[in-house]
Each structure stands twice: as C-alpha cells, then as structure tokens.
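Long-time lurker, finally posting.

We've been working with Sce7725 family protein (Burkholderia ambifaria MEX-5) and I want a structural starting point before designing mutants. I don't trust myself to interpret raw outputs, so I'm hoping someone here can both generate the structure tokens and explain anything notable. Sequence follows.
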Amino acid sequence: MYLPFVFGRQSELRAISDVNKKYTASGRVVPIIEPVVAKPNDLLRCLGNFGKSQTKALIIVNPSQGDFKKVGAKAWRVEVDAELTKYPTLMPAFQCGPKTSFSAIDAFLSEYDGRQVGLVYYSPSLTDAEVKKLAGKSTVDFHISLQGKMTSTQRSLLPISKAIDVIDHFNKQDRNSDYSGVELFTDRHKTYSTTGIGFGDYTVTGSTFQPGGGKPAAVAIHATFKNPKNKDVWVEHFVSDDIDIKTGSANSKYLEAVAKLALAVPKRSSEFGKNAALTAYIEDYKTSHFSGLGKSKERQIYHHIAVMHDILHGTL
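Top reply, 14 upvotes:
Generated this for you. Predicted structure of Sce7725 family protein:
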C-alpha cells in the first residue's frame, strides 16, 4: 500500500482527484491530505470526489500549516466534518505532535467514535504506555509516523498491520536551476512489508510547506521512473535551458523543459510507464502549448503516484 502525503492546495488536490478511481480503487493508493488553505472549496470538491467514488482518503482535521499556522480551524471544521459525515470512506486523521496531549487524542477518538481513523505522529510527547494504548484501539486503521520523528521504542509498539512510515525522499533545492540529471528516490517499495502495511512519501514536492508564486528563473519538471538496473525508484529532473530570471518567460522556459521530457519518455516507456500526465506533457510539446506551472505541478504529482501504483501493481 502506498500513501502519498499532499498539502491541500489546488494543484495537489486536483492531482489526487485525477488519480482517484484509476489508481485508488484497488486500495493500493490512499492519499493523506494536510489542509493548508482556510477556504475549503477546493478541498470539499476533492473530498466529494473520493466520497462519491467510495475510495479512501485520510484528512488531517487539526492542520497547523499555511493558513492554519496562526488561526484555528474551528469554522473550517464545520464544513469539512459535514463531508466526513456524508462519506464513510473519508477517514479523519489527527496529528500527534510535541504539544498534543493524550486527552486531546482521546477526545478525537470519541468525536469520531465508530469511524475508522488515522493517527499521525510527528515528535509525539506521549509516554510509551499511552502509545501502547493507542496501538490497541480497533478504530485506528492507520498509525502513521512522519519523517521518523518517533522513538524506535514507540514505533515498535505500533502494529505492523496498521503502521505506515512517511518519509521525504525528494532532494529539494532552493532554486529550480540547481536541479540536474537523475538521482535515487527510494527502494522502499521492496522493503516496507517488514515494518508496516505500506509506505508513504511527499511525492515530488517535499515535506516543507512553501507558498508558491513569483516569476521563475527556471522551470523544472521532476519525473520519477523505475531504474531498470535494480528496480529502484529514481527521479529525473528536466530543467529549462534558460535559468536567468531576467530573461525569457514562464511560457518559454516551460516549453524548454517539457521538450526534454517529451523526447526522453517515449524511448524509455518501460521506466516511466504510461499515464495521462505524461500524455498531456507530450501533447503540450507537440502543440507548443503552455498549460501553466500549476498544471505542471499537478501532472508531476499525478505521474509520481501512477508510477508508485504501477510498481506495486506489477505493471511497471
């Protein structure tokens, strides 16, 4: 099982909405969404998409990044909870951090009594006894450890049949122009079963939430692929030739980057696979069309999830 962790921005939400059904119906892909935008319109559309198709998604109901860093999520919760109530395959998830008390987690479990839920651990201040008690809760379907920020003792208390480790494998750079060539992404699809029911990552966006915007000095497209030598997952960075912020446009730089991808992918279909995101990129190349940087980000996430699904499914 693969659990991609995404932030609840428009591009990410559209990406997982697009992969829904085609890649989630099998149960091999279950997205984890951490909302970051207080206006819930895009999130509600995404949740409705999953709910109506009766496919699973985890939604963190106590978000703390983006718009929620300074303000609470009380008003936002009212609308989101209405969707959670409507669709039983949508799973509430609760972040357990350094300031999260056991009583707060217990209150969350009581609030969603009878529902399958997830607990997300990131430097929890819980005692071993409290973690052991949570590990025994039958309604907790997923125990998710982020970035290894959990003691090895407490991690060992989580049942393997419900445990997930989400780790950032994307080597994020400060500037798009700093990306080049290919590099290892992960081999956890080959080893996860010894420690959990599945594994997760932050796709090709990284674990650090950063608001977007601004004119790019360079455009980069990050495409994961299966390395034919060892079956590990690697990522190739297709970067525009123009990397000067003072020259060119997002349009021209995108077309430079997409040309490199479009020329590489058809020759290596056994590595990159075939999916709607790659098809759309190649069509942009053929027609010299600029779909927008947001759409490109959406496609990169879509492609990555498709690659991970196809590897687990044995079709790549």
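Before you design anything, note these points.
The chain has a mean pLDDT of 96.
The chain has two domains: 2-171+186-201, 220-313.
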